[in-house]
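Task card 7
Instruction: Convert sequence to structure tokens.
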Amino acid sequence: MSNATLTSLLEYLTGALTTDNKQWLADHLYQQVREIKSMVPYTMEEINSRIDQAERESAAGLGQDSEEMFREMEEEFIHEEMEVPEAV
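Output:
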């Protein structure tokens, strides 16, 4: 997003949110930033090792195909959408 878009969004939220809502949003944004900063990238050795392991499992008939995986993900998303979030 551009700085202008972000500034406009911030101005809207500043006027529209209660103090409690602002605190809730700030806490969640801060937590997301902390999680992103704590992520350590994989080394090429780790990536290659994971690929080798996946190829061995696939050759042995283990794991699941993409259709099954996407079906399970869709079911999870539908379940999450049905949950009513708690009001802040």
